[in-house]
Amino acid sequence: MTKRNQTETKPMLRMLIVEDDASTRKALSHLLGDRFIVEACELAEEAETLLGEFRPDIILTDVRLPGESGLALLDKARVVAPEAIVIVMTGHSSIETAVQAMRSGARDFIVKPINFEALDLVISRELEHQQIALDVKRLREQALDRINDEGIWGESEEMQSILKTAVDVADSHATVLLTGESGTGKDIVARFLHRHSSRRDHPFVAVNCGAIPENLLESEFFGHEKGAFTGAHAQKLGRFEQANHGTLFLDEIGDLPINLQVKLLRALQERQIDRVGGTGPINIDVRVIAATNQDLEKRRDAGAFREDLFYRLNVIQLKMPPLRERKADIPSLWSRFIDRFATRENLPIPKAGAGVLNALYSYDWPGNVRELENVAERAVIMSRGAEIQLAHLPASVRESVPCAPGIRIPGSTLDDIEKEAILRTLAAVNGSTSRAASMLGVSVRKIQYRLQRWRDEAHLDSDELPQEPRRSDHPLGTATKTATA
Ligand SMILES: Nc1ncnc2c1ncn2[C@@H]1O[C@H](COP(=O)(O)OP(=O)(O)O)[C@@H](O)[C@H]1O
Ligand SMILES: [Mg+2]
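Above: the input record for the complex with adenosine-5'-diphosphate. Below: its predicted structure, written as tokens.
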């Protein structure tokens, strides 16, 4: 980030320098003074008062100070000025402390004697990261705002693109076919379509085609007149008529018997239905949404599903991807389910303990979002509002975390174990260095440094190790070998 950028397009940021050595302090103030509004002090205690008064955007602090240490300042800053970027300065002998500082939330460290060019670089990069993080946060909030009131959550590109298409087609009369495994959200997307259409003030009527006995289906769909068959004691409106001017959701359409398929096709084409035992056709105005977790094309090829009906229903198809193919949605879905169940149970909203998110990421979720919802409900109830532990997850989820087959403890060096841990974590989170960093409790930069080092050391060709991320917060920003294969 150049000085021009800083001063022309944005208000100057405030920097707090904490350094007990007077000449270094002066030099830093002088050098940084034309990029930032600088305040400098000698002691952590002074700096702590300045956190509230000066409200620094960046804190550049020495670790070793005469009174309280830079680490103590860091702890205070995290509470009082959580948005501030903290960069620590440290001597060669105290790199360990610097690592500790990074664990406690420092964003970076620089080793003394200070090379000002390097410092400049570190600051610029951190500001850039901060900007990206803010952008991502803002985009995320916007995305959540848009879909929050719908109760449909999903930050992944897959879900966002489905919701976008859904908004686009919501108001058309065309039939929508929702396909996807059970629990992927076909139901809630059907309701979403209805709410976004001009039919929203009319009924949304759902029929589960697989749950109604075959001999009752026709009357369920189209209604019957009194005395139409034994047991028809009164006239009954069918689902089509109940949904008039609104939306009819035909769930599990793949289970519809052939003879009903013919009648459904006619209703869709003619926009007319016949009540069982009725005297003439009745006009209806219904928008149909159908859903299935079966492969309708296969059913069609097998002769179990009529081709003409298939084409009639398949005007717009929305494919709901299984959760395992959009793991980026897991954290937000999880935290929202946890919030919801904790609130319902009148419990404080529990945090996720060590390893929990990792396990949620590693698991395959055959039951998709419905299964995640159930696991969250169970975890809230079992943890009673305290931190959610691995033990509160079902064994199947807990045991999904891969243990490295190539790594033996003892028998491997710490470096090997570290490498394995980083690469496996990256693979589990689709290569997002920021997610991996937060799961491993280290800085993003540490991971980036390691990747670079391994690449340099091994002279591996470029696809052997994850590449530098284009955008650290984006799950697909980095490609791992497995993800690109
Ligand atoms: N994107 C999502 N956001 C919030 N809840 C979801 C989402 N997808 C699914 N669910 C929840 O998961 C459960 C299963 O979803 P549902 O729409 O019934 O799936 P399907 O009809 O595909 O079997 C429901 O409780 C639903 O509210
Ligand atoms: Mg369903």
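Notes for the reader.
Confidence is low (pLDDT under 50) at residues 1-8, 144-149, 460-464, 467-485.
The CA atoms of residues 299 and 305 lie 5 Å apart.
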